[in-house]
Write a structure and sequence with these properties.
The complex is a heterodimer of chains A (111) and B (122). Helix content of chain A is 0%, strand content 43%. In chain A, 39% of the residues are buried. The N and C termini of chain A lie far apart (28 Å). Chain B is built from no helices and 11 strands. In chain B, 41% of the residues are buried. The chains are: A mainly beta (111), B mainly beta (122). At the A-B interface, strand 3, strand 7 and strand 8 of A face strand 5 of B.
Amino acid sequence: QSALTQPASVSGSPGQSITISCTGTSSDVGGYNYVSWYQQHPGKAPKLIIYDVSTRPSGVSNRFSGSKSGNTASLTISWLQAEDEADYYCSSYTSSSTQVVFGGGTKLTVL
Amino acid sequence: QVQLVESGGGLVKPGGSLRLSCAASGFTFSDYYMSWIRQAPGKGLEWVSYISSRSSSIYYADSVKGRFTISRDNAKNSLYLQMNSLRAEDTAVYYCARDPLPNYGDYSSDHWGQGTLVTVSS
């Protein structure tokens, strides 16, 4: 069982917006602004799309946005495109000895 | 451009050892915190270990603590992971990854290698 909880799957149609949640505790998501989101296509290495809760790395589309409320972080993808179909993982710093924890991943299907 | 190239993976028997290497190029390696992150076949991501730019801070996941050792050689632009007492559950693709900001531990990774597969099986 992963330390952070994500829905196993979400889906949406092209042009729609979807949101993926990532729920932790006050020891990780809720206590620090070190939440990151990664996109992973099959057979590829993960790609960082959001860090520090809401910062987009250079080159990442502004269709991706991140936020946090309490112990839950969220990734919103606007104007869904076919190439957004992938697995998405959240991660957070944690005050436990582990330092970094990941969510179990969410499979996004673009209908 | 930033490049991270892992090597050293392979098939090893339970209880055996393996040393992974990650060759970095395209950036000032000595300025960045680095991580090893793994992914078991068909499973999610698991953070393994983290080392600061000057090796002054090192952290491990509880699942590998006491068995794995992370190190770096800034003169050789290389990151390493010494893995001892390997178990079947250590079977995974191991990724080398870089923090996004220089001289700052941000606990995220903006550049990843292609990964190297470690299989622990008798």
